[in-house]
# Entry
Amino acid sequence: MNEFGEKDDEKKSVDDLVDEILREKSAKADMSDRSDMSDDSDNEEDRTTETVDIDPTAISKEYRDSEEEEKEKPFENAVDWVCSIVFTAAAVILINLFLFRAITVDGTSMCDTLQDKDVVITTNLVFEPKFGDVVVIESDKLIHSETGLYGEPIIKRVIGEEGDTIRFDLETGDVYRNGEKLSEDYILGPTNQSHRGWVESGVDYVVPENCVFVLGDNRIVSHDSRDLNLIGFVDKKYIMGKALFRLFPLDKMRLL
# Structure
């Protein structure tokens, strides 16, 4: 091998080394490109996966289900309204029958305590009529003081309870309960009317068991227990309730 051959071999060896270095760099570049492509591919897969998660078909189905629920709600609301109305009506009826009731005064037999067309609130909740109570009595028991007919419920005042002795002095217009003269600042006119079949002056009348003796505050016109034949002693079963307060007119609202 001559001098020139050795130089040629040495030159060839250098060229081989350069080629090897270039190949390594190229290989590294290829690996880097592949890595980048792999990352891009992974990102693309992630994006694809996210896109798949937001499924248009699922959204459409959910929207349709929501629309169907919205369509059902009016019917459900209607049922709720009907149930509420029925419950309210039932509550009003029960309250009206067993707790409180509005009664319109018909006539002037309770003047000046109550006027014609006044509205009073009554109750029969755990109620036992007592002396002085203003009570509402069923109309089929008491005749109307002005028309002489049986009509609307009638309002009177309890003057005697069972066992009480009631006596009238028709000359002075005084009423006695168990021997004591009543101080009746609520009456309009004296208690001195006398008609056939009514109470007599100076006679004691004992109130029977489970009964009360009632009078209207307007003694001149009131048709009440003084009429022994048509009314007399009132059985407590006919008492609808106690008048608690006057509701109307509003400017005269007060307890009774």
In short: The longest helix spans residues 3-53. Residues 3-94 form one domain. Residues 100 and 174 are 34 Å apart (CA to CA). The two ends are 145 Å apart (CA to CA).
